[in-house]
C-alpha cells in the first residue's frame, strides 16, 4: 500500500493561518475568495477584484488594528488588511499569482485549496444527506446496460464513491445521535433538556432518522444492487474489461494486483450493503436511548425537587458550585461543630421499612427461631398500603398513564390543542411536557404536531402543539 504524505502536496505552513489569532478572519476571507470564482471559468480572478471584495469585508468588520506576530506588521485600514491577508495566504500555499499577457495579476487557487474550502462549506452548512438519492443513483448505474462497455470507468468507480459517501453519512448520523446523548449528561435544567429534545427531533428525529426508516429505506434496492455486483464478478467478459479499465484509471501496471484490488473493492461494497442492518440497528438503539434519557432526566429534575432526595441534591449541587467558583474556600470554614456532625457519614446497622442496609447471607446452619405473632402487618393495613401504592402509580407520569389520559381526551374528538388542557398547577404543566415527549415515540398511541403559536397561561409559557390519535 502506497502511503502519501499530505505535506508532499500542501505547504508546511498551509494550516498556519487557521491556527493564528485571526483564524476566524482567515476562514471568512478564504470562503469569500472562493465564492468570487463561482462566475469564472477557472480558479483565477484579477487581484484588484479580490482586493476589492476583501476590502469591502473589512469595512463591515471591527476597525481595530490587526497586528501580525510573525513580522510585527500593523494593518490599520481595510486596504492594508486586505493586502496583508492575501499576502499571507499566498505565503502559506493557499493561492498563487499569475501574470497574464496584458500584465494583469490574477489570483489563482490551488486545486487542493478548492477541495479544502468545499469541505469547510459542507461543515458550516451542515446539509443533510439525501440517502434515497444516493441509493437510487447506485441502483440506476448498475442497471445501465450501455455503461457496461467500460464497466470500471462508468459503473464500478461511481458505485464505490457513492457507497462510501452513503456509509459515511450513516456513520455521521450515528455520531450525531451520540452527541445529543452526551449532552443530556451535562448540567442542564429541565427546560433546557426539553428544548434540546425538540431541537433533536427537528434536526435528526423528524428528518434524517425518519427518512431512513421510511422513504429513504435502502432495503428496497439492496437485493438488486448486490445481485448486479455479483453479476460483474461472475461475468468473465465484463470483469476483464473492468480490470483493464482499473489498470488504466488507477495507473496499476501489474494485472494480478489490479484484479485482486478490484475484487476487494467490489466485495467491500457488497459487505457494506449486507451490514446496513447492523448500522441501522445501532442508530435505532441510540435513538431510543436518547429519547429514554431525555424523558428520565427531565422527569427526575421536575419531580425530585421537594422530597428529601431532591433537597439533598440541591444542597450538594450548591456546595459544589461554591467550591468550584472559589478555590480558596474550605468546607470547614466558619462552620460550627454541630453543623458538621449533620454531614458525618456513619455505618447503618439497623433494619426498618426505609433502611438501606443489606442483610448478609449467613453461611452457618442454624435452627430457625419461632416468629413472634406481633411481626408483620394486619390485613387491614396491608389493604391500605396496597391502595396507597395503586394511587401513587396512578399519579405517575408513565407512558401508560399518559396514553390513558390522552385516550380519554380524544374519546369523542379527532384532535385537541395542548393549550386547551388544564394548566392550573406545576403538575399540569409537567403533564403537558410528558404528553409532548411521549408523542414523538412510535410506541405511543397518539402523536403530537408542533405549531408556531406561543401560549402563555397562568404564568406558564410554551409552544402550542396538536394532539391527535394515531391511525
Q: Can you offer a commentary on this structure?
A:
The chain has 471 residues and is mainly α. The chain has 3 domains: 7-123, Winged helix-like DNA-binding domain superfamily/Winged helix DNA-binding domain (Arc Repressor Mutant, subunit A); 129-291, no CATH class; 385-469. The chain is built from 16 helices and 8 strands. A 3-stranded antiparallel β-sheet has the order 1-5-4. A hairpin with a 2-residue loop joins strand 7 (446-457) and strand 8. Helix 1 crosses helix 2 and helix 5 (131-143) runs parallel beside helix 8 (219-234).
Structure described in brief:
Helix 5 (131-143) runs parallel beside helix 8.
> In total, how many domains does the architecture comprise?
3
The number of E-state strands comes to: 8
Strand content: 5-15%
Biggest sheet: strands side by side, in what order? Answer: 1-5-4
Order of helices and strands: HEHEEHEEHHHHHHHHHHHHEHEE
Give a short account of the largest sheet.
3 strands, antiparallel
> How many helices does DSSP assign?
16
Structural class: mainly alpha
Shape: extended
Poorly predicted ranges: none
Overall radius of gyration:
33 Å
- Mean pLDDT over all positions: 78
Query: How far do the termini sit from each other?
Result: 56 Å
Query: What oligomeric state do the depicted chains represent?
Result: single chain
Give the fraction of residues assigned to helices: 55-70%
Amino acid at each position: 500500500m502506497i502511503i502519501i504524505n499530505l505535506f508532499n502536496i500542501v505547504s508546511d505552513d498551509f494550516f498556519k493561518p487557521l491556527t493564528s489569532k485571526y483564524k476566524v478572519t482567515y476562514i471568512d476571507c478564504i470562503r469569500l475568495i472562493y465564492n468570487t470564482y463561482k462566475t469564472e471559468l477557472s480558479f483565477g480572478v484579477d487581484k484588484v477584484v479580490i482586493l476589492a471584495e476583501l476590502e469591502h469585508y473589512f469595512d463591515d468588520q471591527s476597525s481595530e488594528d490587526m497586528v501580525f506576530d510573525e513580522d510585527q506588521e500593523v494593518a490599520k485600514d481595510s486596504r492594508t488588511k486586505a493586502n496583508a491577508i492575501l499576502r499571507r495566504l499566498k505565503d502559506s500555499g493557499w493561492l498563487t499569482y499569475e501574470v497574464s499577457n496584458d500584465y494583469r495579476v490574477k489570483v489563482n487557487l490551488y486545486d487542493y485549496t478548492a477541495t479544502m474550502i468545499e469541505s469547510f462549506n459542507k461543515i458550516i452548512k451542515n446539509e443533510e444527506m439525501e440517502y434515497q438519492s444516493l441509493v437510487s443513483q447506485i441502483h440506476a448505474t448498475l442497471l445501465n446496460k450501455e455503461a457496461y462497455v467500460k464497466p470500471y470507468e462508468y459503473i464500478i468507480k461511481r458505485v464505490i464513491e457513492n457507497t462510501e459517501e452513503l456509509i459515511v453519512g450513516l456513520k455521521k448520523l450515528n455520531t450525531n445521535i451520540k452527541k445529543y446523548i452526551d449532552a443530556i449528561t451535562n448540567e442542564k435544567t429541565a427546560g433546557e433538556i426539553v428544548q434540546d429534545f425538540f431541537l433533536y427531533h427537528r434536526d435528526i428525529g423528524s428528518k434524517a432518522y425518519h427518512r431512513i426508516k421510511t422513504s429513504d429505506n435502502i432495503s428496497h434496492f439492496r437485493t438488486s444492487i448486490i445481485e448486479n455486483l455479483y453479476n460483474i464478478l461472475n461475468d468473465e467478459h465484463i470483469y476483464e474489461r473492468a480490470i483493464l479499465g482499473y489498470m488504466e484509471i488507477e495507473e496499476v501496471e501489474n494485472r494480478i494486483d489490479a484484479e485482486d484490488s478490484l475484487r476487494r473493492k467490489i466485495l467491500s461494497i457488497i459487505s457494506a450493503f449486507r451490514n446496513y442492518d447492523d448500522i441501522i440497528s445501532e442508530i435505532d438503539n441510540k435513538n431510543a436511548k436518547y429519547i429514554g434519557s431525555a424523558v428520565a432526566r427531565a422527569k427526575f429534575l421536575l419531580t425530585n425537587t421537594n422530597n428529601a432526595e431532591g433537597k439533598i441534591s440541591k444542597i450538594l449541587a450548591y456546595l459544589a458550585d461554591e467550591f468550584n467558583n472559589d478555590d480558596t474556600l474550605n468546607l470547614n470554614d466558619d462552620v460550627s461543630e454541630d453543623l458538621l456532625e449533620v454531614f458525618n457519614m456513619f455505618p447503618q446497622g439497623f433494619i426498618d421499612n426505609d433502611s438501606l442496609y443489606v442483610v448478609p447471607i449467613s453461611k452457618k446452619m442454624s435452627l430457625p427461631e419461632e416468629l413472634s405473632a406481633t411481626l408483620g402487618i394486619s390485613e387491614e393495613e396491608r389493604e391500605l398500603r396496597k391502595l396507597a401504592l395503586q394511587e401513587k402509580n396512578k399519579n405517575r407520569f408513565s407512558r401508560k398513564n399518559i396514553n390513558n389520559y390522552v385516550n380519554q381526551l380524544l374519546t369523542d374528538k379527532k384532535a385537541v390543542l395542548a393549550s386547551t388542557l388544564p394548566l392550573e398547577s406545576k403538575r399540569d404543566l409537567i403533564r403537558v411536557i410528558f404528553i409532548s415527549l411521549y408523542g414523538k415515540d412510535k410506541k405511543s398511541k397518539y402523536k403530537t404536531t408542533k405549531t408556531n403559536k406561543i401560549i402563555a397561561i397562568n404564568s406558564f409559557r410554551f409552544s402550542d402543539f396538536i394532539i391527535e390519535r394515531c391511525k
